[in-house]
Amino acid sequence: MSFNKRSWQASNFEETIENNDVYRRMSDQSLQFIDKDRRKIKISPDDGIQAEDANGTVIHDTPDCLIATNMVYGGHIYFKQPATYMNNISVSYTDTNNYRNVYSSITNIDLSSHLPSDLTNARGALLFIYLTVYIANAKTALDASVKTECRFSYTYNTTPNSNNMLIRLLSRCYATDADNAFLQNEIGSHCFCPIVYDNGVPYITLRTWNEFSDMNSNNALYVNSCYIYLHGFLS
User: Which residues pair with 202 in a beta bridge?
Assistant: First the structure.
């Protein structure tokens, strides 16, 4: 194998570096860059690409395996301060049905105003998701239940795979006395979600699945809401 050589130089904040070997085989050599604070980026055949702080502690490393076709690189995490409320994905009905299996509409949340304006490679969002379910007194029967899931998609404005769950909640009514006639429950959790792009605009694409079962046939309210908060992002 032959390597092309030419003179080159790269300037940093305090000096100019010259080298006549542009393409160098890394079979037994390493390349290191050290800044004024003694932080180091090292490229070597043994360690791959590593970043170390001034004490030699590894603060970034690359995996020693290939990124498989069914994997997506996650990136580095940045916390957003303060966190931001983004959206509420809700389904709500008042009718005489005793069973309903329903999907919300696909929700594409535009993140462009919530990320740094010069960031073009955000890969994931750190979310807090808060689910609430409710079946009114007149609708509740023994064993009435609600199952709900919030799911994400890897592609803008497309239906998520059923396995792409961010959070899941099951609520069931075990008593129908006067103090427990309605069914209500809540759950919240942090989760990561991939950021998808459409014409350069960053989005998260979400949808909820909801199953209401074993209700009575009275004409009354039943509802599920999914509140989305942005707590950070990965790049």
Answer: 197
More confident residue, 82 or 229: 229
Residue 118, SS3? coil
Query: How long a stretch of residues is the chain?
Result: 235
For residue range 143-153, list pLDDT tens digits in order: 899 999 999 99
Check if CATH label 2.60.120 holds for domain 77-234: yes
179 Cβ contact list (under 8 Å, min separation 6)? none
Cα–Cα separations (whole angstroms), residue 181 to 60, 68, 134, 158, 174:
54, 51, 11, 38, 10
> In which residue ranges of the chain is CATH 2.60.120 found?
77-234
Those residues whose C-beta lies under 8 Å from the C-beta of residue 132, and which sit 6 or more positions away, are: 184, 185, 186, 224, 225, 227
CA-CA-CA-CA torsion sign (170, 176, 180, 182)? positive
Q: How far apart are CA 217 and CA 6, in angstroms?
A: 81
Q: Are 123 and 75 in contact (CB under 8 A)?
A: yes
Name which of 24-38, 116-130, 138-152, 166-180 the model is least confident about: 24-38
